[in-house]
Specification:
The chain has 112 residues and is of the alpha+beta class. The protein is 29% helix and 18% strand.
Length: 112
């Protein structure tokens, strides 16, 4: 058996992603709603172990939105928190590290 852990941006990270152009810029103004859910209509629902979903602020025509999701797996018998820590960093940061590493490999001549 395998244990699969999935992670992605929480509300605060979604608002901060506006600074990098990953979500509409106006979403940065929703940061106050992150800590006061009494009037918020959007957020991350962790599903009480039934699944995870994101309810996002409205998108308008022409809006751009990138919300990557990271998955990590381990043998089910592995009781460590390794997969949880693997999905915690920003998916965008992880992707930039992977593409940077691939670019380095592409620039390195084969050692044959």
């Amino acid at each position: 058996m395998t244990r699969l852990t999935i992670g992605g941006s929480d509300e605060e990270a979604i608002c901060r992603a506006a600074d990098t152009g990953e979500v509409p810029r106006r979403w940065a103004g929703l940061l106050d709603e992150v800590h006061d859910h009494s009037f918020s209509t959007w957020g991350v629902d962790y599903g009480h172990y039934q699944g995870m979903s994101w309810s996002l602020p409205p998108l308008e025509a022409g809006d751009h939105c990138e919300l990557p999701v990271v998955a990590a797996w381990a043998p089910a018998a592995d009781e460590s928190t390794n997969t949880w820590y693997a999905v915690m960093p920003s998916p965008t940061m992880l992707l930039s590290q992977v593409t940077s590493e691939l670019a380095k490999r592409a620039d390195t001549p084969d050692a044959h």
